[in-house]
Amino acid sequence: MKKLPSIKAILLAIIALSCFKFTTMRITQITVLQPTAAVTTIGNTLFESVAIKKGLLDSNKHLFDDNELLSLKQEIEVVTLAAASPVAVYDGLTLEELAAKLDRSLASDLSGYGMVYASNAIKYGVDPYLAVAISLLETGCSWTCSQLVKSCHNVGGMKGSGCGAYGSFDTLESGIEAMISNLSRNYVSMGLTTPEAIGPKYAESSTWTEKVNNYIQKIKAN
Q1: How far apart are CA 135 and CA 27, in angstroms?
Q2: 65: left (phi > 0), else alpha (psi -120 to 50), else beta?
């Protein structure tokens, strides 16, 4: 007999495909989820479908084992809530919240690129506030971006070729990822995780560290 997919696998697939909407209420670190009527309806349909497949409910919805059916219902509820719960990825923020926070400090050509910074920072294990702060200092994009950004999509003042003595990238997305990847490989992985530790290697300016720290504080306050 062909093995049926697990309850969790079925739930996660349907949740991913259906784009369920949840309303959230936050109290400090507690998140209370309230599924919409549409979610409840689909959840009940899923419950009945799984119950029939497990032999706990016939096609006419007649119960066979009340206790086991109740256990199944509770399992579905727990897995559904776990799958739908927002996950904090950094500083107590979900990825979407982090992206929105970063966006509030980005302007000019980098406006709206908060998600690109957030997702790449999480991917490469780099402090997202630090990555954006360095970009703001190197590009001036808290007001208007430098020509290096506009012409070469270089958001970190990275040396290389294709743009004089600086690196050139096809898109802003690739430039942002390259900058964060560089921070990960050549600094964070070597234990250089703060502006004070990164500064002497990254920049020649004696005020670079102080300026990056100032940007970090502004980003956190936004």
Answers
A1: 33
A2: beta
pLDDT of 108 higher than 70: yes
Q: What is the DSSP string of 111-163?
A: TT-HHHHHHHHHHHT--HHHHHHHHHHHH-TTTS--HHHHHH--SS--B-SEE
Separation between Cα atoms, residue 11 and residue 87, nearest integer Å: 18
Model pLDDT for residues 33-87, shown as the tens digit of each residue: 333 443 344 445 555 555 555 555 555 555 555 566 566 666 655 555 555 567 8
Domains of the chain: 7-86 (no CATH), 89-221 (1.10.530.10)
Q: For the purposes of burial, counting CB atoms within 10 Å of the CB of 163, is it exposed (0-12), middle (13-18) or buried (19 or more)?
A: middle
Quick one: residue 19, left, alpha or beta (phi over 0 = left, psi -120 to 50 = alpha)?
A: left
Q: Tokens 């250089």 correspond to what residue?
A: 192
Tokens of 92: 């107590």
State the Cα–Cα distance between residues 80 and 88, nearest whole angstrom.
18
CA quadruple 36, 42, 44, 50: dihedral sign:
negative
Phi/psi-derived region of residue 90, left when phi > 0, alpha when psi is between -120 and 50, beta in every other case = beta
Cα–Cα dist 82/90, whole Å: 19
Question: Is the whole-model pTM more than 0.70?
Answer: no
State the burial class of residue 165 (Cβ atoms within 10 Å of its Cβ: 0-12, 13-18, 19+).
Answer: exposed
d(CA 41, CA 21): 13
